[in-house]
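Do me a favour: review this protein, sequence plus structure tokens, and tell me how the chain folds. Record follows.
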Amino acid sequence: MLPGDFFGFCTSLQKAELMAIGKFSCVKHYAEGELVYSPGDESNEFFIINRGLVEITPEPALPGSSMVFCRGDIFGETGAFTRMQRDQTARACALLSVQCFAAKDFPELLRSVPSFVLFLCENMARRLFQARATEGACELVGSLINFDMITIYQTIIRSMRTGALLIKDERGETLGEFYFENGTPRWGRFQHLLGKEAFWQLFIPPHNAWTFSFSRELPLNAEWTEEKTITGSADQMLIEAIQMRDEFDSLRKSMRDDNVPLVRKELNFAWPAGEPEALRPLAEEIWQIVYSKPMSLVDLCARCNACASKIYQAVAGMLRADLFASATVEKGDDFPGAKSGKLSNEEGEPPSPGVSVTTAQKTLPIAGAQTADQYQLESTLTS
């Protein structure tokens, strides 16, 4: 379980405890750009993100002071515990679904699920420790076991730092190097990927026991090339990276085994009209790679000049078009961005209902959970 991961924490709970968390919470949905709360609002609840992104901006707002929270993150808990008025703005920067816990239910929640309150306290302590450890140092150094990439990146943004972020593996070999100018990424490399593709791949786990360091001095062997250039604002790059990561997670859950070789079923390539046109060049590249030798998704990620999320999306489209065989998928899972419905073992099976977005719409609390599986738990909490 990753530190601070709510859904991972829930897998350790008994069924009665999961039911209690459902009983003392409700689901709220927000449209992109909609406010969750504003400075001066009463702090009578806190939130855990089921789907989407939230931008937290302190008051007064300063350049680089905003933070983006994503799936599994907790926000608003400090105000809910202290009952002080909000001093931040929380705004949905994508379609948002949150699990909402009212402060008035804390005593009963503590009695029913003591470990949940301990989890909240550990989460707040960890966030405070990370802030002190990173922002108080002239250079940032640490392990990705203890610090997540989003925290590291947002620390660089908020402090408006100029310098190089290096990612190294267990043997100390450099896997990635990213140059920042006043807190904005300007160029980067991650393994064989360059520019934006490298940046997006940086946020896709697993990171194992890799380490990171940030220094004002560039490494001696760093070379700038046009292909490494990164354009776009720091905040927008982070939002795109998180969305890429979430799409990858969803697709990977749909694949039973991404080590199974893919085999071409057709002689000629034909990209379906219903699939994203932006993925066509990558799909054609994959088609040529697999032409002479079957290759798994894992192997394709090491060969193609695109991040893993895009590769999985392109392959998913080719599976839907029946261009490939041997890569099996879980029945009943949608591929994000699909236009032609889900890939399933049953023909004509309707896709799962989409999330209906309304202003702070509440749904009934969950009645229980059948398994401790993280994906099924999320579906239960957001049902």
Remarks:
- Residues 327-383 have pLDDT under 50 and may be disordered.
- Residues 269 and 284 are 7 Å apart (CA to CA).
- The two ends are 23 Å apart (CA to CA).
- DSSP finds twelve helices and 17 strands in the chain.
